Amino acid sequence: MSSPLATLTSSNYGGILLLLSVLLLAICVSRDLINLAPRRVKLPGPAGFPLVGNLFHMRAGHARSLAHWTKLYGGMFRLALGEREAVIINTYADVNKTLIQQGAAFQSRPEFKLWHGAFSRALDPDAPTTIGTTKFSEQISKYRRLLTAQTSAVKLPRFVQTFGTETPYILPQLVNLLAESSKSGVAQDLGFHFWTTTIGISADILFGQRFDEDTTRLVADVNIKAFRQRSLATPVHDYVPFVATGERILLAAASPVRSILRALGCASWLDSIYEAEAHAAELRDAEVAYCKDLLRDLHERLDAGDPTPSQMGDIFRTIDDGTLTPNEELRLATTLTGSGMSSGTGLTWLAAHLAAHPELQEKAYRAIEDVYGGEPPDPLDTDRVEYIKALGTEAGRYFASIRLGFPRETHEDVVVDGVLIPKGVLVVYNSYQINRDPQRYDFPEEFVPERWMEGHYGRTDVKQPKVGVPHLNHGAGRRVCMGVPNVNKMFYGNLVLLLHFFKLERAPLGDAARAAVFPNLRAVGEASLEVHPIDDQVSASDPQALPLAAGIKLTARDPQALARWLAEGHLELDQWDRPNPTDASLPSDIVDPGIRGHY
């Protein structure tokens, strides 16, 4: 029996080719007309492809694409991302006009199918999303007030002091990990050391207990991978409705249909959908499980009269009338459990950079020596060594580990420079590009810690007051990250101990060290000696830039002093003898009323 295709005549072929040619011409002529995204925002911007708009430009690598468009269209421009119309903010001046001066209009969040559907609500349609990814409401305002009281700079010493006096504080555990690595004499990637430490500190402070290594590894792994579910412009079905409809039909199709697709070699796309959805559900399952376990354990300890300060514990003590539902408790817990992730990412980037620049290490070590006179530094005395603070601030600016700030959505109609941005428009502040705004920073493509020292604030050519956030890694305006005090203290404490006790040197990873890279997705390559913020990241389209693996050989500066420091356990640092402040005992004039959370 002949194939139906074999019965086509040459005229049939000609007709089909003519039809395809006309269709292709129509698409080319109307590429700017066949768009799903509305044209409500009268801003300039690049032309997009039919139906998908600028979706694939972004998926190819948003940092370079947005930098190119900033040169062409200025500090604010419009993109079409499938059916979503987006406004991209690229300069400090435009951040000031929008997120800061008109913050109320830009305080909401958009919803995305993968994050809010497959991940956040994968197990339960009523499951809570994190506070940071939820549209603005009076309920979110309530949660933010609860969390602000627990994440302010004045409240933090209440938590860290307790861990110093009653349990071994986790920062010595970092030094112990580094010391063990230095004994091996071979290069290792330090991602595990930093992420498990910073996320471990966050979780300790949140629940009032030390985590074992397995739990810390799990929490770190889940949060790093879960953050990748928030990628902008991916997956396609988040932005193109008919793709989502087609996927639902295919996913709902009977098994024989899927078998036929696989036999025809057309199932790789279908399989990738299954894998992405299943992976999101697995991550959510793990997150919900450990948060529920930790909350249950905390309630049991509180009921038994445990007075240990903790963020969640203090919230429960404040609200003792049962007004928080289990879902609300879970929302608070999932929001804060992985809050040390960005610190771990920044430290992993910075350590690789310092390992390739011994002159920066030596300058940092001398600065520590000048302050402490050879004695071990206090990791919680965050203001003592200016150069260490400057290294941390510059790492946040230069590497911009949060490349695209958490997307906003206009909460109401707003006019910016005469241009109407209606309610419900997706708004993205381009952290990477803003952190390289030449009006804000001189030598923006260079790593220059001195721009934050001796009265300088972003520029080396002028001294100026410390006005506004130093960089956009933690956001700005109404939903700036509430955890900045925690982030700064964790970053400083890790960094000052690392540089006091060890020298770092870049070296290739051996097979065993490559197999141990954490998380394992970073082992797809090894960072260059330059440690380039774009070229040496795992994915060009992730919202958080994870650095590729980097081999670092550690050498103890003074092995005997290091051994003594670890043996002491750090229960004698003067930090532990300081008063244990509570909100009631603190004078009102030192409470920062400007702290507002992105949660």
From TrEMBL:
The keyword Disulfide bond does not apply. Coiled coil: none annotated. Heme binds at C481. InterPro entries: Cyt_P450, Cyt_P450_E_grp-I, Cyt_P450_sf, Cytochrome_P450_fung. Its cofactor is heme. Signal peptide: none annotated. GO terms for molecular function: heme binding; iron ion binding; monooxygenase activity; oxidoreductase activity, acting on paired donors, with incorporation or reduction of molecular oxygen. Pathway: Secondary metabolite biosynthesis. PANTHER family: P450, PUTATIVE (EUROFUNG)-RELATED-RELATED (PTHR46300). This is Cytochrome P450 phenylacetate 2-hydroxylase. It comes from Mycena albidolilacea. The lineage of its organism: Eukaryota, Fungi, Dikarya, Basidiomycota, Agaricomycotina.
